[in-house]
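User: Here's a structure from my thesis project, written as structure tokens. My advisor, Dr. K., wants to see whether a designed sequence matches the one we expressed. Can you design one independently, without my sequence as a hint?
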């Protein structure tokens, strides 16, 4: 099961009432509940699920029927509110009270009282929000329902709630000698090149690693920290400590068959985070200069806007990954897109991260290591810098999504400029206007673009309601009339329907 929430965050859903009904459908951030006998038991499961997911509004006094959501009202408003506040402040009922007076309002709907409870998304320090004094009673939201979290989801939330940086703890199953000397040398050369006068350049390797947070003294032994093992260790040692650890970079030319792959478990290289970063950046910079992905010599130049955006995306995935979570870090370069996926959820709401100025990386010591060699600039500016870099070269803003079960954050950069997207959409619509039964393979052939580019463009048109499909594979395309582009009538056979 995957629950996805896109980067365009919807504001808190406010239900709309008309003629004794609620016209707002239940969904990931809205739930209606009958409340004839006070607070229903299921209220608390939804409170927990909203708090642990994206927040949401609970409407009390609204029930489901064959005719939709019907307003029944809350018979005893004062008693229901008293029960709500008493339980919110009872740690044996719920682990934390997230509500203020402003979050609970009473609305009159055709003479009936409805109580609206706005539940905010809990901060990472307050998660998991659980019930009955038992963290196993933790819930999250899936579409229009609540589900009970599995132990791994709960572990992840508890780990994120800790105030200190967890990647600076010593790894007692390893010693400093277990770290890869070639990786350490490469990292130190990066620092010497950027800051030749830095005093740490004069330290031996052990002292240097201690100063950057990659190692700590544990009694008479110097051991790598979690960050040090991840950055400079070998994959088999990292995986013995974090069984789900995996780094995977794939390049695709067409379809789902990759043409190049770099995997941490293949035994042909160290498999650590720093070497992965260097290899992926070098390969992506070289490949993105090719005509199939993005054109323009300026975009091949070191430090170009696209280079900045890809670097920010990759480091963001690496320093925010929950390396004990499922799925590993996966990076994909396809014709027309660059995507990163990392285990873990957003530590702060994305709308706050997009504004900039707030930095809360999951692996803070690792972030400091990247910053020391000039790869992380001012904290909290990564997402605004990504967006500006894209706009500088006419690319759409990167898209962010947050998934659950397993927990993952996905960031996708389109390498097709806005004008190129508009041109391709217009060309596809013109082909469909002429032949409503045209296949995507034929569109690809006639337009000289990849089939995946055609599929992505058609998906965008469907999402906007511009285009739909009737009759499956043997059917035809239907234009809705919501087009942004004029379509010249070229003698259509009548096989296209326009609504």
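Assistant: Designed independently from the structure alone:
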């Amino acid at each position: 099961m995957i629950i996805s929430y896109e980067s365009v965050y919807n504001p808190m859903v406010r239900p709309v009432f008309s003629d004794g009904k609620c016209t707002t459908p239940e969904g990931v951030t809205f739930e209606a509940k009958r409340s004839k006998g006070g607070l229903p038991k299921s209220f608390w499961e939804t409170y927990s699920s909203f708090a642990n997911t994206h927040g949401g509004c609970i409407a009390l006094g609204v029930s489901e029927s064959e005719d939709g959501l019907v307003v029944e009202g809350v018979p005893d408003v004062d008693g229901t509110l008293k029960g709500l506040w008493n339980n919110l402040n009872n740690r044996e009922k719920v682990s934390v009270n997230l509500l203020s007076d402003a979050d609970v309002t009473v609305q009159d709907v055709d003479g009936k009282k409805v109580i609206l409870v706005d539940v905010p998304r809990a901060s990472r320090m307050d998660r998991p929000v659980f019930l009955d004094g038992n963290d196993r009673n933790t819930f999250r939201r899936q579409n229009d329902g609540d589900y009970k979290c599995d132990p791994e989801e709960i572990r992840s939330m508890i780990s994120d709630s800790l105030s200190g940086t967890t990647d600076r703890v010593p790894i007692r199953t390893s010693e400093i000698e277990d770290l890869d000397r070639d990786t350490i040398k490469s990292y130190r050369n990066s620092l010497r090149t950027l800051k030749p006068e830095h005093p740490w350049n004069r330290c031996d390797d052990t002292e240097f690693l201690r100063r950057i947070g990659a190692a700590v003294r544990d009694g008479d032994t110097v051991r790598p920290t979690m960050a040090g093992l991840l950055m400079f260790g070998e994959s088999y040692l990292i995986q013995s400590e974090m069984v789900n650890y995996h780094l995977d970079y794939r390049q695709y030319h067409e379809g789902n068959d990759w043409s190049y792959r770099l995997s941490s478990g293949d035994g042909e290289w160290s498999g650590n985070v720093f070497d992965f970063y260097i290899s992926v950046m070098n390969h992506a910079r070289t490949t993105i200069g090719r005509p199939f992905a993005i054109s323009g010599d300026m975009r091949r130049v070191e430090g170009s806007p696209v280079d900045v955006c890809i670097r920010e995306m990759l480091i963001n995935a690496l320093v925010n990954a929950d390396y004990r979570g499922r799925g590993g870090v996966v990076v994909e370069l396809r014709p027309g897109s660059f995507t990163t996926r990392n285990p873990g959820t957003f530590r702060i709401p994305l709308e706050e991260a997009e504004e900039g100025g707030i930095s809360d990386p999951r692996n803070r010591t690792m972030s400091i290591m990247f910053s020391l060699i000039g790869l992380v600039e001012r904290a909290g500016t990564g997402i605004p810098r990504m967006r500006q870099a894209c706009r500088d070269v006419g690319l759409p803003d990167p898209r962010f999504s947050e998934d659950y079960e397993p927990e993952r954050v996905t960031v996708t950069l389109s390498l097709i400029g806005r004008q190129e997207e508009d041109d391709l959409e217009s060309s596809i619509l013109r082909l469909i206007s002429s032949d409503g039964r045209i296949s995507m393979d034929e569109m690809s052939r006639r337009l000289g673009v990849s089939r995946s580019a055609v599929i992505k463009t058609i998906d965008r048109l469907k999402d906007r309601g511009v285009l739909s499909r009737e009759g499956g594979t043997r059917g035809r395309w239907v234009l809705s009339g919501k087009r942004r582009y004029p379509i010249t009538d070229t003698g259509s056979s009548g096989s296209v329907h326009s609504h």
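When you compare it with your expressed construct, this may help: Residues 244-414 form a domain with the Heat Shock Protein 90 fold (CATH 3.30.565.60).
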